[in-house]
Sequence to fold (251 residues):
Amino acid sequence: MLFAAALALAHATGLSQVDNAAQRPGTFDPGFQAAIHFGGQAPAGPLAERFGLSNTVGLSVYRLSAAGWRWGVHYRFQTGSDVREPGLLDNLRDPNGHIIDNEGRIALVTAQQRGTILSLSAGRLISADFLSPGSGIALELFGGFWEHKLHFQNRGNRLTQLDEPHIKGYDRLTGGWMVMPRLGYVHDSSNDLVRFQFGVEAMFGRLQPNRVWNADTMTADSGPRMDRTFGLYAAWILRLKARSTDIDYYH
Fold:
């Protein structure tokens, strides 16, 4: 029994060494990955005249090649509480600056930024001998569609002007194409259990206002506009891989 156990242990050790040699530092285990990510952005250009700081949360799916090439599909939801839109809801305010609801009461209305970003990406992971397998510097370029608008929170007050279809005169819906270069670091731990990514990014959009008329300012937005953001991001990465064993474990 002891001799058989020793043979089994030696065989398992040999297989482990072969596997470790197959994936040396500087190489990548190809396959699919999912990433849950979040970030923060500072606006620039015309966007800074309308909004302040924003944040995003989203989901990505990547395909990683053995050579380190990385392709992805991404969805991001953007929010922000700092709205700087000039003249917003001015036509709904009384001489004291209050907004009056349908019942003649003072309405508590809060404007927020909302946005959606759908994109594809291509990039490369660059590793080094001193890094664990799968870790490296990530250079990526994103391209896709970016849309943002104003969302109004009404706390117990009904305003017909902020319901459909009248809301289209106030929400400043704007959308168009964007590109986003990104530089980051991807970490894959030696035990293959911890994977994360962080870095910096810049988003550049050529966006067109989608509303022909703003009811509160009695003007139309001009476009297209070159909206921009600069920010930080972080992501938790999950490996999408089929089971490698038929053994079931119960706890």
Summary: Residues 200 and 230 are 8 Å apart (CA to CA). Strands lie at 31-44, 54-64, 69-80, 109-126, 136-154, 174-188, 195-209, 225-240.
